[in-house]
Amino acid sequence: MLFLMLLLLLPAESRSQTDPAQCRYALGMQDGSIADDDLTASSQWYESTGPKYARLGRDEADGAWCPAGPLHPSDEQFLQVDLRSLCFVTLVGTQGRSGGGAGKEFVRIYRLDYSRDGDRWISWKSRTGQKVIQGNSNVYDVVLKDLRPPVIARYLRIIPVTELTSTVCMRMELYGCSWHDGLLSYSAPEGQIMAVPGYPIAYLNDSTYDGFLERRLQFGGLGQLTDGLLGMDDFLQTHQTRTWQGYDYVGWRNDSLGPGYVEMDFLFDKQRNFSSMKVHCNNMFSRGVKIFKKVSCLFKPRLISDWEPEPVGITTVLDDKNPSARFVTVPLGNRVGKELRCQFSFADTWMMFSEISFQSNMEVIKPRVIPVHTRLPSPLSTADPEPELSTMLQSQETTPPFIVSWPVDRPDDGSTSVLIGCLVTIILLLLVIIVLILWCQYVRKVLEKAPCRILDEEVMGQHSSCSDTMVVHSSHSNPTYETVFLLDPEYQEPVLLLHKLPELSQSAEDSVLILSNPAYDLFIPTSFPLIGWHVMKNKPISTNVCSGDYAEPDLTQCTPHQGFQSSVPHYAETDIVSLQGVTGSNMYAVPALTVDSLTRKGISVGEFPRQRLHFREKLGEGQFGEVHLCEAEGLQEFLGGVVPLSDPDGRPVLVAVKKLRADASKNARNDFLKEIKIMSRLNHPNIVRLLGVCVCTDPLCMITEYMENGDLNQFLSQRESESTLTHANNIPSVSLPNLLHMSAQISSGMRYLASLNFVHRDLATRNCLVDHQLTIKIADFGMSRNLYSGDYYRIQGRAVLPIRWMAWESILLGKFTTASDVWAFGVTLWEIFTLCKEQPYSLLSDEQVIENTGEFFRNQGRQIFLSHPSLCPPTLFELMLRCWSRDTKDRPSFERVHRHLQEHVA
Ligand code: AMP
Questions:
Q1: Sorting pLDDT into bands at 50, 70 and 90, what band is 871?
Q2: Is residue 618 in some structural domain?
Q3: What would you report as the CA-atom Rg of the chain, rounded to the nearest whole angstrom?
Q4: Is 627 in the pocket of ligand 1 (CB under 6 A)?
Q5: Does the annotation mark 762 as catalytic?
Q6: Residue 217: which CATH number?
Q7: Where is the signal peptide, in residue numbers (predicted)?
Q8: pLDDT single digits (tens) 318-331
């Protein structure tokens, strides 16, 4: 019993030998432990911008490495770092050139090549198969990018990528730790697919393997078995979001391999003296998965020698009671080798491994001396309960920690005395480890007050508990952190996906969705392209209604607009903290010219004197700030009578004034101006009209026509379907012809936008406004901002994406087109015919909505469609279903949708 308790106390048991959450030490650019000689470059602009000046956080000579330039899109210039030994690299930090304040160059996106031997170079790819990594947007901030998967390499090359010819300069740091295993490559039969009727399909391939594949054998590389990620008890589940079932494991089926075993070769950097091998195995016996029955390993002392005849191995004790995934530790008897060949025998139909590591008494690869305070905070994760403790273990031990498997797998040699001896030894060792742990905890407490805390304190507290990609940014010399969740379009058929969707390979970084909260109504779009998410908690609504920006605000009239409901949950509200696919990608299908043509011509509405706006009440609050109802004195004359307004007899006209909040960031300000420019070019009876602006002084305001009935969502949600009952009881109601007419109007507005090739990106009832005559006008062009910006919207602030309205390709690929607007229109129709009483997919969590998106992509009949609303005529529901076609070409055009709806109205 004591033994079991002691085992359970072992923290290392839930971790791999190299834990990416802990392995985050600066590898020596900034502190100079990477020598100048180890920094080379394909070119440099001047001596004073040579590779040795590429040190993050330092500002020497001209302040950064700048390749000879300017850099053209087709150029491939690189900065190369030799780490002198194999390292497990988990993050890259980049920064632009400050040059004592004179610099203005930085690298927006870059690629990474790595090599273990200096000969074979491999391009780093995210789990999505994407090579491009988001870099900097200014010269000061440090942007840290988590490498998922991590890289095991000695040499790394950073390759700036540019879409336009420009001068680029950069400083950088690499983060990680020494690669104690010394493993250069493993070979194994290709992982297989488990398809059992009645169960989800599990894809058990080694998807990040960086070697070769020939006749179903993978060789010459490393992959998921050395990425530090341990699989869960249920092999269908994974902590890695946006991946597929079975992601964590590489698995093989017994009868497919003939001999009843899986043979793997392991090649090491040097000759080593092996004490043990640890294999993390699944044991979900109810699904025919068990740890291996026995393993037998041969050793080759040198590359050119033969395999030594005597194998080393064990027979395991199989376990039909505990389905936990577990490490099986295989003693290797201190045999010496440079290469190992192990045969793992099946105990059941399937065998699945998630990680393999080796403990060897090698000539120790001396880790670079890494001060404790340079370790970056780990992204918190459920699999990472005691990060600091394990850091201590990792950083202080020169040999890997002794780890015993749990449940224990013992050699079945029948010798009780050996077993007892082993147990006693283990207990003694455990006692030592416990003492060590307690000691580490004590030291950690002391260290928390020491320099390492400095860095942690700089963290802005925006880490998510489930981050998969983390981008860190800092301001000036004081780095701060921000967690970024980028969309990860990788699904279970990555090869197919890449094949089918070539734009993926050009688009930016891997990304992951982390969604877990119910949706909210408030919406803060970002500059696009996207895409990262984390859950936003309730957002405080400002109560400062009468701010005094207008002439004579009348405090007595500051009553909330009846239509404003800040708390109605609407859509998946998720934060965008970083963007992807910004340059060099085809992700955004709106032709650049279109938005250019909207924006380049400037604002075609006039500056309205703000003192002639008289505040009446607050209508609502949106992404930029509050929307006020105001009287606009003399607006009719201001417009020269061109725009017919409802009150033409000289009396002040009521308008809605959208005001940029005082604390808005520069980005938000730019976005606000961009929305003004876009709106000023739109002219259609079903698009909300911009009447004037106040942009000469702050706060920036846009003046639009006032839509008395507020937004369509709250309008419909407060009404019932017209019937004798509603008539008799005077209940606010809408008729079916009303709903059809509303739908037709929206389709008319969208047809107009589509004719301009303008993509709205956020069509939903909440973004349609209703006037007193039930005219519907589409509003909110906030999502249209920064369509082509290479920058990303970084906050303080957050932004959210309406995933329940988004087409699968918008979520998975960041691709927004008129066809994805058609999809959103289908959802908007569904909202209309459910009278906005329910959120789309209300029974699904955000994660499930994302999963469902994957099903739409796979199109194997498992996707869940929104149900047929009872009020909706069958032909209209068919139209909705066509809007949700997987292939964009199968979706109807807005022209067709409009015609269809007009027929209904008639
Ligand atoms: P927005 O910032 O555009 O998302 O607007 C926030 C809220 O203000 C909307 O949901 C509406 O309830 C209200 N609102 C915005 N524009 C108008 C308008 N032109 N007329 C009436 N209400 C509006």
A1: very high
A2: yes
A3: 31
A4: yes
A5: yes
A6: 2.60.120.1190
A7: 1-16
A8: 999 999 999 999 99
